[in-house]
Amino acid sequence: MVIYELTNTISKIIQNSDAPHFEAELIVMSALKLDRAKYLISKTDKADEKACGMALEMADRRKAGEPLAYILGKSEFMGMEFIVNRDTLIPRQDTECVVEFAAALIGDKPYSVIDIGTGSGCIGISIGKLCKNTSVTLLDINRNALDTAAENARLNGVKVDLLCADILNDTIDRKFNAVISNPPYIKTEIIKTLQTEVKDFEPVRALDGGSDGLLFYRRICEILPGILNKNGIAVFETGYDQREAVCELVKNTGLFKTVGAKKDLAGNDRLVYGI
Question: pTM value?
């Protein structure tokens, strides 16, 4: 099968996706190991039979609702490429505002930073890339996720420390200048109503924030006095309807002169911070 025919065939298979032709191109490029420039000049070439079969298998997975990022094994965030898999959430563009805001606060200061619930490591690694004087610790309960984060740090040229811990139960015996987290914040009862790509494929443990979605915010705020240095900062990603509740939890730590919130590019409340 010629490459452009393969692309068109896959586009028809995954026609229910948001951008079937674009996704079909990405699938074909991945299976045939082509970058975009090579793909564009090779459309009339015959596709290798084995690679063609692989591309069709990938299309079937996409048709079944599996996120494209898991099929491709990678996702872009902050202009960098991150390995993703079923142990990690797929980085969202909405989260980039968390990185940008935290990085602006940190600047070139020699800060120690911990990214709690790091998953793929996209937040902590991006901050480490933007803020050259930081030392970054990535914390997650899932050892497989930490292994993925470590590989992402290596691929993006950022040195990190890894900490495998259960933030709900374990004691963190170190202090940091900045605590950053995108914790699980979806209410347990809501998870079953999410789109198939999320509820059936992404790790539930990274989504479930307890009955009211605030379980992890409460715990992190509870331990903040023990893990945050004087004059430190905290930045949390939040759900669109959690601003007031999380602001109150951050205020109640008594650690911060300023507590506030910021919206993402879509105009939704997206982060809460303490300075």
Answer: 0.94
